[in-house]
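Translate sequence into structure tokens.
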Amino acid sequence: MIRITKNKDGNVMLWKTGHVEGRSAYLCKKEYCITKAKKEKRLEKILKISVSENFWKEIERGKQWQKNAQA
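Result follows.
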């Protein structure tokens, strides 16, 4: 799972380890899960934020980073 967290200041980040205060959403690492979440604006609804195209690219990079770490 990929964890996306919005802190009290409204900043949104990918969170890889440890605990952080704030509201979080989890995405399946599979490409179709990410595509569906993007299409249905799930992060926007759950975290009440606006998600840029750059952030979706960061999610993809995070997915690749995790895949490489497991190899």
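Note: The longest strand covers residues 2-6.
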